[in-house]
Amino acid sequence: MQQLLEFATNHLALVLTFVGLAAALVWNLFFDPVAKSAVTPLQATPLINHEDAVVLDVRSIAEFNKGHIVNAVNIPLNSLAKQLQQLEKYRDRPIIVACRSGSRSGMAVKMLLKKGFQNVHNLRGGMMAWENAGLPVKRS
């Protein structure tokens, strides 16, 4: 125990960094609404097939046209705030938000949650994970 205390006092910056990272990890796992609502591609498919979930793709139109989830609705993230009324008809259905890797969709999930949408999920890993799982992609 004395060696641990000596290490901590000699390497205070390292210990504080570790504590900060551990706190951020705990917050992300237990308190971040986007992380709590994330679904993998394999968890998303039953939502789509059995619960009539809507897939909202927030990538650019050019990215969307290169390949997207079948029946996905494309509203680019930079215009989502102005086009939220298009999603009102889906308010009572699960919404799965997708982008290329999962980061832009995380921002969109936060926006939708703030606007009162309840059943919103971030597609963890985005279209990259969807394609890596071998799930169908429609190309325009």
What can you tell me about this protein's structure?
The structure is a single chain. The protein is of the alpha/beta class and 140 residues long. The protein folds into two domains: 1-31; 33-132, Rhodanese-like domain (Oxidized Rhodanese, domain 1, 3-Layer(aba) Sandwich), CATH 3.40.250.10. It contains eight helices and four strands; from the N terminus they run ααααβαβαβαβα. A four-stranded parallel beta sheet has the order 2-1-3-4, covered by helices on one side. It is elongated and about 65 Å long. The mean pLDDT is 90.
The CATH topology of the largest domain is: Oxidized Rhodanese, domain 1
Whole-number mean pLDDT: 90
Percentage of residues assigned to helices: 40-55%
Instruction: Report the sheet-strand fraction.
Output: 5-15%
Large-scale geometry: elongated
CATH class of the largest domain: Alpha Beta
Order of helices and strands, N to C?
HHHHEHEHEHEH
Q: What are the segments in which pLDDT stays under 50 over at least 5 consecutive residues?
A: none
**Looking across the biggest beta sheet, what order are the strands in?**
2-1-3-4
What is the makeup of the main sheet?
4 strands, parallel
Distance between the termini: 63 Å
Number of domains: 2
Number of helices: 8
Q: Can you tell me the CATH architecture of the largest domain?
A: 3-Layer(aba) Sandwich
DSSP strand count: 4
